[in-house]
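Postdoc handover notes: sequence design on the structure in folder B. Input tokens:
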């Protein structure tokens, strides 16, 4: 293989030019070539391999921690998976009155003041909130869904002048 490379006209020309250089220039070119080869090996092979190894090791440690946590909380996780979430479920809210009571109580607990609310059939309620924090509304809706099984049937959000503030019209149902 080395013989084939030497027979190549371009390689032969480079070798001839190298041979015509003074000894000091040949040594400098050799040192520079070795330095470039080492830099390429480090930046193109070693460093990416070490980075991949570190990321894989970190991922493995995170997975091991998650597994340990899941094993430690196995009964709680199984209870959640089977639908026994521990809080009030949608089945405990049987009519519009209980829905209205739950919605108004949880809004107050979340720091929201309902401007207006009215029943909408047997299992739904319409709610209006004016100039409230979008984050508070989102957290409140998540709480209603997660703890009480109340879902958003319709929603309308209008942006207010202040950043992060909205006016909201919702239809919530069980």
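Designed sequence:
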């Amino acid at each position: 293989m080395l013989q084939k490379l030497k027979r190549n006209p371009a390689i032969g020309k480079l070798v001839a030019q190298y041979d015509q250089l003074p000894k000091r220039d040949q040594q400098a070119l050799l040192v520079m070539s070795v330095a470039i080869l080492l830099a390429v090996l480090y930046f193109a092979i070693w460093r990416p391999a070490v980075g991949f190894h570190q990321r894989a090791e970190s991922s493995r440690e995170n997975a091991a921690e998650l597994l340990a946590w899941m094993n430690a909380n196995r009964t709680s996780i199984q209870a959640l998976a089977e639908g026994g979430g521990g809080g009030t479920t949608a089945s405990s809210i049987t009519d519009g009155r209980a829905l209205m009571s739950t919605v108004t109580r949880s809004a107050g607990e979340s720091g929201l003041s309902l401007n207006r609310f009215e029943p909408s059939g047997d299992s739904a309620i319409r709610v209006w909130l004016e100039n409230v924090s979008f984050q508070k509304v989102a957290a409140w809706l998540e709480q209603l869904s997660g703890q009480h099984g109340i879902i958003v049937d319709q929603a309308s959000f209008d942006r207010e002048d202040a950043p992060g503030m909205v006016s909201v019209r919702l239809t919530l149902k069980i």
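Context for whoever picks this up: Confidence is low (pLDDT under 50) at residues 84-91. Don't rerun without checking with the PI first.
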